[in-house]
Input
Amino acid sequence: MAPRKIICTVPTYNEAENILQLSNELLALGPEYEVLVVDDDSPDGTSPLVESAAKDEPRLHLLCRNTDRGRGAAGRDGFLKALAMGADVVLEMDADFSHHPRFVPTMVARLDQPGAEVGLVLGSRGVEGGSDADRGLVRQLVTVLANLYIRILLGVGVRDCNSGFRCWRAATLQAIRVEDTFSKGPAIVQELLFKTARAGIPIAEIPIEFVDRVRGESTLTLGILVRGYTTVLKLRWMAITGKL
Output
C-alpha cells in the first residue's frame, strides 16, 4: 500500500532562484506529496517567497529558523517537523536541482519493494547506473576517496556515504532518535547513516545522476568539509567508547 503522506524536506539558505520551481516539481509527483522548506532566514528572500506561495498551496510548508543555524540543525528540525506533521515517508534533498525530483518516486517505491523492504534509501552516485559526470576529475576523485574513508572508518556498506538525497521511513527516524542528532553541518549525513546501520536497519541505494547547480551559489566550503570528516572520527570514537 502506498504511503499516505510523503513529506519532502528541503533545507535552504539563499535558494530564492530555485525553491519555487523545485517545490512545484515535487508537488506535481502526486497528491500524497508535500514540501517542507526549512530556511535559515536567508537574506535573499527565500522565506517570503515560500510563505507567499504557500497561501495558495496547502501542501507547501515553511519552517523558518532564526537561531542555531546550520545544515545539520536544519536537517534535524526538518525531520522532527515532518514527523510531527504525520509523515509516513520523509525525503531530504538539496534545493539546487543537484538532486532531481524525477528520482523521488523510484526512491519511495524502493522502500516497500516486496521481499526487500528497507528503512532508508539513498540516491547514489556510486552504484551501477549512477553518475557524477559533470564535475571535474579532481572533485570526482575527492568524492571517491572520501567515501572510502567513511566506509572504512564507520564500517557502513554503502557506496555513496556522502549522499544527502535520502528517503526515510518515518519509523527509521524514530528508531534512531533523530531528535538527538548533534552534527551542526553537513556531517549530519554521515551521522544518521551510521546510526541507521548500527541499528541494523536495512539500507538501499538507487542510481541517480548528480549534477552541479546552475543557479545560485553553494555555501559548502573546504573548511566545512574538513570539519565534517573530523566528525566521522568523533562518531567512530563515540561508538568505541559506548557513547553513541
Q: What stands out?
A: The chain has eight helices and seven strands. Helices lie at 19-27, 46-54, 71-84, 104-111, 137-154, 170-175, 188-198, 222-240. The CA atoms of residues 16 and 46 lie 4 Å apart. The mean pLDDT is 90.
